[in-house]
Amino acid sequence: MKKLVKFFLGSLVLLCFLIFIASFFVEKKKFVNLIEQQIKQEFGADISFNDDISLHFVPFPSVKINSLKYIKKNLELYVEKLNISLTWSSILDLKPEINNLELHSPFLKWDGNLKLSEKFLVKVNSNNDKFSSKLNEISKKFDLIKIYDGKAEIKNQKIERINSFNAVIRGKNNLRANGDFFLVNLNSSLRFDLSQGNPNEFNLIMQQKINEKNKIDFIGKVNLFDNDFSLNGNVQSDLLNLDELLLFNKSLSLFKNNQLISINSNIKTNKKINFFIKKLLLKDLTFNNTKFLLLISNSAYNITNFSSRFDESIITGNSTIFPETKKVVGNLYLKEFLLEESYFGKTKYDLFDGKFDCKVEFKYLIGKYKNNFKSLDSAGNCKSKKIKLRGINLEEIAKSVDSIGDFSTLIKTINPKKWTGISTLNKIDINFKTKNGVVSFQDTSANHSNLDLEVSGDYQILDDKINFRNKAYFKTKKFEKLPPLGILIKGSTKDYDINYDYQNLKQKLFNEGVKKILNEKKSITINPDEIKKLFDQKTIDPNKIIDLFVN
């Protein structure tokens, strides 16, 4: 035991002696120059720093640099303080071997508008180097890299900012990195954990929290190949609010031209990510169990196997995004969509308590206009089975038409403003197209045992203008084919007018009604009170006088 203690104390004394001796024999300036050359050689970077440098030997050899700068064309890197840990053998041999690096408050400025050959934050196939082998080579040059409070400013079409970047990177045998940072433009905090399984395979875990509410978790694998990589993973979220994520679309400009990773054009390996979002919020709508597969290829982003639930309805579809042309094409299907009474209530005629099946094919250009509705080009169809219509009781009107026996009944029957009640339609068939911000309706119809309705018109989305020209064909037991009632709707969704073109219908019913009254009663009796009401009005509608007296 005494020998062991003596050996330990002797080793400690020897170490202290070597440290003491080294401090005299190692020339600081010369050694710092060697470190500078080593950094340039190991990392291929032309780095410069000022003379404010200190060399320490306790508790281990280290160099502290208070200012570091690296500038190359459109890339600038500034480090407020850099701590470099060295091996003892490198001190004695005057051949610096860097063990650990600590970067305090690094600031990266990068102009993303680089030429193709200069896209090199991560550069694949540069001078025929293989990315995977190059990465492994770099990782073996150090044991540990720590980054504290880093910042980045990336200029693309606009400036993207990263704050509070902290990371711990371990090298040598297997690369491992974890850390966190804040994306200013997205108001998002991100955490990541990257671990190397084998030389060409990495496990990646990421968590993104947007506005401190919307949390997105990613778990997947990244496999590196010669000049390419594959990505397979799953994205999961319990809650996402799309209204809060609208600026995400604006921030995609950073990735539009593959500026972070320069790769050959002959990529064959797709990147696959499965998405599952338990609850998705949009305006006042809630979508449940939204899932889809994102396939990223060389020229397109494909969203396949999309499905989501809205109340009891099922939404499915597929779409393809072409980043080069900013074009999106796709289709969407809606099954068993229940039109609830609470959705409307703003117009005289509202549909409710019925289910629709819809399909639509669409294409549009991302960012072409401030409002993408202008670039939307779509065509679709919606069909319903039995559905209720508020504002008119078609059966009662049909009965009234067939049983006109007095003048007041006749007046009430031919006056749409007096119509009330609820009808159950047998079916609705809607065909629509969207182009240049206008939704047009053609060959749209509704059916009831007492009514056939034809709808045509358009809605200008951007200007919020309505222009509909509808024809209603009433059917009764005695009148199988009556002249149509025209229903004209103009204005906006907030302020509109409904006008009726019922001259032909009114004339038909009036003539037939008067004939029936004359046949049954041989005379027409007019209530004096109705005449008094007519002439008490400040303005007299001539049509009403005609309604009273024309045979």
Name the features:
551 residues, alpha+beta, 27-stranded mixed β-sheet, 3-stranded antiparallel β-sheet, 20% helix, disordered N terminus
Provide structural commentary.
Strand 19 (301-310) and strand 20 (313-322) form a beta hairpin. This protein has a 27-stranded mixed beta sheet that branches. By secondary structure, it is an alpha+beta fold. The chain has a domain at 387-520.
Provide the fold topology.
Blueprint: H1 2-25, H2 28-43, E1 47-49, E2 53-56, E3 62-65, E4 68-72, E5 75-86, H3 88-93, E6 98-111, E7 122-123, H4 131-139, E8 144-155, E9 159-170, E10 176-183, E11 188-198, E12 201-210, E13 214-225, E14 228-237, E15 240-241, H5 246-250, E16 261-262, E17 271-282, E18 285-296, E19 301-310, E20 313-322, E21 327-339, E22 350-352, E23 354-365, E24 377-384, E25 387-390, H6 394-402, H7 407-413, E26 422-425, E27 427-435, E28 438-448, E29 451-460, E30 465-474, E31 485-491, E32 496-501, H8 503-521, H9 528-536, H10 542-549
Parallel strand pairs: 6-8, 7-16, 14-17, 15-17
Antiparallel strand pairs: 1-4, 2-3, 3-5, 4-5, 5-6, 8-9, 9-10, 10-11, 11-12, 12-13, 13-14, 17-18, 18-19, 19-20, 20-21, 21-23, 22-25, 23-24, 24-27, 25-26, 27-28, 28-29, 29-30, 30-31, 31-32
